[in-house]
Amino acid sequence: MVHPIFTVLVSRPELVMDHIAGYAALAQEEASGLGVQVKRRAAAWGAVAIGGLVFLILAGVAAMLGALLHEFHWALVVVPAIPLVIVVVGWMIARQPMPASAFTELRAQLDADAQTLRTIGAKS
C-alpha cells in the first residue's frame, strides 16, 4: 500500500509546496530574532581578536621602551591595558550563551507534522 503522503505529493503538489513555504517563513521569522544576537557575538569575537593583537603589539613596544629607558613610566602599563580591557569585555559578551528558546516553534511544528504522518501511516 502506498503511504498517503505520496498520494498527496502526486495529486496536490501545491499543498506540499505551501507547507514547505510555511516552514521557510517560520524559520526566517525565528532566525531574524536570533540574527541580532549572532551579529553581536560576532562583533564581540572580532573585538577580542583585534584587541588581543593590539595588546600584544603595544605590550611588546612597552617592553622594548622600558628596556631602553631603564626606568618605569605609568604610560608603559596604561597604554597596553586599554586594549586588554576591550579584550576582557569582548570576551565576556562573546561567551554569553545563546538562548535555549531558539527555533522552539519550528521544532514544535516539525514534531506535530511527524506525529500526524505517523498517525496517517498507522491508519493505512
TrEMBL record:
Task: List all membrane-crossing ranges.
Answer: 42-66, 72-94
Asked if the Swiss-Prot or TrEMBL record annotates the protein with the keyword Transmembrane, the reply is yes
* Keywords per UniProt: Membrane, Transmembrane, Transmembrane helix
Transmembrane found in the keyword field:
yes
Protein name, UniProt field:
Candidate membrane protein
User: From which organism does this entry originate?
Assistant: Ramlibacter tataouinensis
Question: Taxonomy-wise, where does this protein's organism fall, top ranks first?
Answer: Bacteria, Pseudomonadati, Pseudomonadota, Betaproteobacteria, Burkholderiales
